[in-house]
Amino acid sequence: MKTSRVLLPLLVAALVGACSREAAPAAKDLPPASVSVVTVRAQDLPVITEVTGSVRPVQRAVIAAKLMGSISELPVSLGQELAAGELLVRLQAPEVAARVAQAQVGLDQAQRELSRERELLPRGATTAETVRSLEERLAGAQALLREAQAMQDYTAVRAPFKGVVSRKFVTAGDLAAPGQPLLEIEGTDQFEIELGIPDSLASGLAAGTPLIARIPSSGASFKATLR
């Protein structure tokens, strides 16, 4: 019994070995090998590093008031397209209108007095010094009127360039103060991609370096120049 249990596995192994030798093809039956010779050379290959950024308009402006006044008109809405010079905000500033009226009265008075003294000068009823003094007074009154009118122009805030309204910080009826943001406008003609570059890569880049930009949402791919 012990002898038959040992010989059976050996017999099976011998048969399997015989079958394997019979299945192996002879060397003369193999197809000829195709061999090619190439020249090995060193080559620098680019290492592609992806950096995520955001598309931004080149022109961006935060619109603020130059004087204090209540907002009487705000005829724009978010996303509205704007033309350069279009009215954005109108301020109501009664004190500025009063300054313009006061400066106009002073100018009119200076013109009348100068005209009268010029008529009296040929008759010797006044002096040339008086006329020169009134001429200087007239020039000062004209400067005051121009200053008041310039302040009045600031009550109408207009778009500095063509674009769209991206943010609104106030509504009609609010009080505007000098330097207070009113609106934010973004241009629609030119765009750029803002991104943060790791320090390990920034040292090897220079302005004018061409880069490949991809927009995943649209699948667009184009060349961009590092600025």
Task: Explain what you see.
By secondary structure, the protein is of the alpha+beta class. The protein has two domains: 50-92 and 156-227, RNA polymerase II/Efflux pump adaptor protein, barrel-sandwich hybrid domain (OB fold (Dihydrolipoamide Acetyltransferase, E2P), Beta Barrel), CATH 2.40.50; 94-154, Helix Hairpins (Orthogonal Bundle). Helix content is 35%, strand content 26%. α2 (94-120) runs antiparallel to α3.
Strand content: 25-35%
The CATH topology of the largest domain: OB fold (Dihydrolipoamide Acetyltransferase, E2P)
* Residue windows where pLDDT falls under 50 for at least 5 positions: 1-20
Helix content: 25-40%
Strand order within the widest beta sheet: 2-9-7-4
Number of strands: 12
Radius of gyration: 44 Å
What name goes with the CATH superfamily of the largest domain? Answer: RNA polymerase II/Efflux pump adaptor protein, barrel-sandwich hybrid domain
Alpha-carbon distance between the two ends:
91 Å
In short:
The protein has helices at 2-23, 94-120, 128-153, 199-202, and strands at 53-57, 60-64, 69-73, 81-82, 87-92, 156-158, 163-168, 175-176, 181-187, 191-195, 210-215, 220-225.
What order do the helices and strands come in, and which of them pair?
Layout: H1 2-23, E1 53-57, E2 60-64, E3 69-73, E4 81-82, E5 87-92, H2 94-120, H3 128-153, E6 156-158, E7 163-168, E8 175-176, E9 181-187, E10 191-195, H4 199-202, E11 210-215, E12 220-225
Antiparallel strand pairs: 1-10, 2-9, 3-5, 3-8, 4-7, 5-6, 7-9, 11-12
